[in-house]
Amino acid sequence: MAHDENLIQKLTEKARIIRRDAVEMIKAGDGGWIGGSFSQADIIAALMFHHMKHDPKNPHREDRDRLIVSKAHCCETVYAALGEAGYFSKELYQSYGKMGATLQAHTERIVPGIEYSGGSLGEGLSFALGEALAARIDAPRDSSGRPIPRYRAFCIVGDGESNEGQVWEAVMASVHYKVDNLVAIVDHNKFQSGASVEERMNMMPWADKWKAFGWDTTEIDGHDFEAILTALENADKVKGKPHAIIAHTTKCKGVPSFENKNLHFCKLSDEMYAEAMEALK
Amino acid sequence: MKRNYVLETPGEMKAMYQAYNEEMVELSKKNGKIVLLYGDFPHGAAGELLQKEHPDRIYDVGIAEANLISTAAGLAGGGYLPFTHCHSIFAIGRAYNQIRQNVAFDKLNVKIVLCNSGMLLAFMGGSHQIIEEIAAIRVIPNMTLVSPADPISTKKATAAIARHVGPVALRLSGSPVPTMYRDDFPFELGKAAALTDGSDATIISTGMVLSDALEAVDTLEKEGIKVRLLDMHTIKPIDEEAILKAARETGAIVTVEDSSIIGGLGGAVTEVVAENSPVPVKRVGVKDRFGQAGTVPELKEEYELSARHIAQAVREVVKKK
Fold this sequence. Notes:
heterodimer, A: alpha/beta, Rossmann fold, 39% helix, B: 321 residues, alpha/beta, seven-stranded mixed sheet, 12 helices
């Protein structure tokens, strides 16, 4: 069922704002992870501004949904989404990546709204699994005896990050314990730090791997809000197993001249900054 | 010399993991936040209890130590009090970054139980005898490292770390150890226990070799050397006050551990003494070698960890005063 046009418009606008604010952050910090930050931006917008239950005025409320960005270097659009949602003042953006800043170059739990301090790849899905398990302990049960979790855990996993063996340890355990309040979204932007994912370490086929482990698995266009929202809503309906959304995305989506160039960590020259701000105005 | 806190003669032999489990059975009944996680390690009495009475508070993630530690961190993030259980060698060796990044970095309230800890693990051989754990854990900011000596102090340490809010690693030897302490031993995290109050030298011991250290104290007493014996059951934060008092009042120190002296208790004590109150120190422990199969007495002999070796180290250090 198609979603309300106003909602899609709102999310499109939020995604534009968080990409724009991320550019400001990267310029202020004289560096950042624009490629992976932008490929996940639409997913972040859909989660933060519609799908997730959370309260910027009460970041620690116990039944909040958790967002764990396992590829935690892609922090700028996450910080921007938190700032836009009202977790903290956007003035913090100017200190990004600087000595003494709250907004470090990899997400840290000291930031209101950040659940997970990453930077060491492959660990976030395990952390999200732990958060999801916690939501099920002492939870009420449905008619078939399954726990009704107090919250859901959403984990953004990188495609390059999936080279790490621990990702698959968590994939295995999440199925074993039937953790159906856990949603892994693979930001399949086709690039890792040094090369395309196919060239560096070919892990094709992606969805089949998750399916083979027993995950409820779908593949979507990670820049199509209709598809993102539908996949997230379907994940709520399937019980008894965790959910994987393989989101096909474009590295650095949002600034046409930057797209698919594998801008991983990059500094923005004045020209690039102007070009990005023009594309995102 | 008067003996503080300890039985006249050593009591029942018991594995530390068994003593730990006895305490955890009680704690798990009382504290509904406790969650037990295993990396295909025997669940023990506490795990069996929860499996029966509260299956949503026990998880075995299989032979996957990295996932074990990070999942525990997530459970702590969700407000629970997770205890992880696996071989120490694999917690340290295969999940070190997870301990550092997912647990210690954010001071998450995870208790990492280092099972089959130390060199004095019979039969298993060098792949399983960990000599690095004290050095590896104590260098991580925010960590507390506890290393009890016998079944009684294991139980008391278990209760203490459950009360303490923050990341803790607990060293549990795999070999059965004699009961040394009386039930009324007042265990306090971060405070060394002085078993004897000698003035000629101090032995600072951690873990299961305390019984050997006490035997060495007896031997030396007969020779007229009066030794202070400190059980340094908390290695981090280390009891600097007790170490410096020992340095000032006894003038010579021997450290004893079933672990590498490089960065181990020997390293930790030497750092404190060298900077603040330099006195002669000798370190009894594993000297830059891997382990091998053997019985505990054979290993103590081969790796120079026996009461005889400890006593000899004291004689040598006293001569240097």
